[in-house]
């Protein structure tokens, strides 16, 4: 722990920033990591180590902007482009809203899938009920306590996966090697982008830039680093657990695998944890889209535009749920879409954190931080562009 931090303030900062790791450990993370482990063993573990480090780098930069300037990332973008700021803000907002809407489809489907593992209630009814509760809570603005409780359950589920991972046949040497050795098996591109997109979540950058105003630089860096590292380790444990899943991948098969390894209690925990991950994220994604709109466009939290944004995001998720879309393919595609959108948001973040006009010298990026950020953006753009090219090629053929 940094010398300038006491044990109490350091622990408090970790708990404070755990909202970021709780936000990215949703049904998308659970599904993508399990599927990656089931199909490719440990071969894609490197994508999680890359994305965990990338998340720390980008979230630290977003939070540093606010500590340095007192402005959120959206406000910095809005002030950095003069007469073009409205157009730039609109394009960026469209990107974030599109990403949040895509996430929301996976969130709703994941939450319904979790409940369907332990109840016989109609998925259509569950979708409508979850949507109604989310709309009610978002309209009232009382989402914090519920999100914290369900987020805690998600972390407990992560601990269960960590225990399952220790029961796998994977050696420590193979695990360490897979963390640092990039491998691209055939037909793994979508999953690689998904693993990156489900960890480095674009809307979390706006969240980080808006909640750290009262923290010191040391507290913020310690809290973000440790909290996100814990979240990354949980994601890795889920991937390793996925290596135990045999046969056709499904949530039911995963639940049965956990029950065989740990007992029936773990099956119930997985089901409720999957629901909790989906429900928590179903609250977070529409809210994050609306907060981003507020930051970029200056709309008030009681304005019709603000509410229209989160209602639109919620509506898209409900449509997918009511159409009874298969959850696993939708969730995987959603993570890939967000991996493609990620460079759009991070390019603006890179420009903002280097702004001489808005950021004091001591808070702007060093050359080493710029190299690290450009590496994250470059790799994300490479895989995202590659994935788009493959999709276009398949469409034309």
Give me the secondary-structure category: mainly alpha
Report the principal-axis shape. Answer: globular
Known CATH architecture: Up-down Bundle
Number of strands: 0
CATH class designation: Mainly Alpha
SSE order, as H and E? Answer: HHHHHHHHHHHHHHHH
The rounded distance between the terminal residues' Cα atoms is: 56 Å
Instruction: Give the low-pLDDT segments.
Output: none
Q: How many structural units, i.e. domains?
A: 1
Mean pLDDT: 79
How many helix segments?
16
Rg over CA atoms? 20 Å
Protein name: Divalent metal cation transporter
Keywords: Membrane, Symport, Transmembrane, Transmembrane helix, Transport
Subcellular location: Membrane
Pfam families: Nramp (PF01566)
Throw out a few tags for this protein.
397 residues; mainly alpha; Amino acid/polyamine transporter I
Description:
The protein has 397 residues and is mostly helical. It has a single domain, classed as Amino acid/polyamine transporter I, CATH 1.20.1740. The protein contains 16 helices and no strands. One of its GO terms (cellular component) is plasma membrane. Keywords: Membrane, Symport, Transmembrane, Transmembrane helix, Transport. Its main location: membrane. The chain crosses the membrane at residues 12-38, 44-67, 87-105, 117-138, 145-165, 189-210, 222-244, 264-292, 304-323, 329-350, 371-392.
């Amino acid at each position: 722990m940094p010398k300038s931090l006491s044990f109490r303030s350091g622990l408090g900062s970790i708990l404070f920033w755990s909202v970021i790791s709780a936000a990215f450990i949703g049904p998308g993370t659970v599904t993508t990591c399990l599927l990656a482990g089931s199909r490719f063993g440990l071969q894609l573990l490197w994508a999680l180590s890359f994305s965990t480090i990338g998340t720390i780098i980008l979230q630290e930069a977003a939070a540093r902007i606010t500590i340095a300037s007192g402005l959120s990332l959206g406000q910095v973008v809005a002030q950095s482009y003069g007469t073009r700021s409205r157009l730039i803000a609109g394009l960026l907002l469209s990107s974030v809203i599109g990403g949040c809407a895509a996430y929301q489809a996976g969130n709703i489907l994941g939450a319904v899938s979790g409940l369907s593992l332990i109840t016989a209630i109609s998925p259509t009814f569950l979708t409508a009920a979850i949507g109604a509760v989310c709309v009610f809570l978002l309209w009232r603005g009382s989402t914090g306590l519920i999100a914290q409780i369900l987020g805690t359950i998600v972390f407990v589920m992560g601990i269960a996966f960590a225990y399952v991972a220790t029961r796998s046949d994977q050696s420590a040497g193979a695990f360490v090697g897979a963390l640092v050795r990039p491998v691209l098996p055939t037909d793994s591109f979508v999953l690689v982008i998904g693993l990156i997109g489900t960890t480095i979540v674009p809307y979390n950058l706006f969240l980080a830039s808006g909640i750290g105003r009262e923290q010191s630089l040391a507290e913020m860096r310690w809290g973000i680093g440790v909290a996100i590292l814990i979240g990354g380790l949980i994601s890795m444990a889920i991937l390793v657990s996925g290596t135990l899943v045999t046969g056709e991948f499904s949530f039911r098969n995963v639940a049965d695998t956990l029950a065989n390894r740990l007992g029936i209690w773990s099956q119930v925990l997985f089901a409720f944890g999957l629901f909790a991950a989906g429900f928590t994220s179903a609250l977070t994604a529409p809210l994050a889209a609306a907060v981003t709109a507020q930051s970029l466009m200056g709309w008030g939290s009681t304005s019709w535009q603000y509410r229209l944004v989160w209602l639109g995001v919620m509506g898209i998720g409900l449509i997918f749920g009511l159409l009874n879309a298969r959850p696993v393919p939708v969730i995987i595609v959603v993570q890939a879409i967000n991996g493609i959108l990620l460079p759009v948001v991070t390019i603006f973040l890179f420009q903002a954190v280097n702004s001489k006009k808005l950021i004091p010298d001591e808070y702007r990026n060093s050359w080493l931080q710029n190299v690290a950020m450009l590496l994250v953006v470059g790799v994300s753009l490479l895989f995202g562009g590659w994935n788009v090219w493959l999709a276009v090629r398949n469409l034309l053929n």
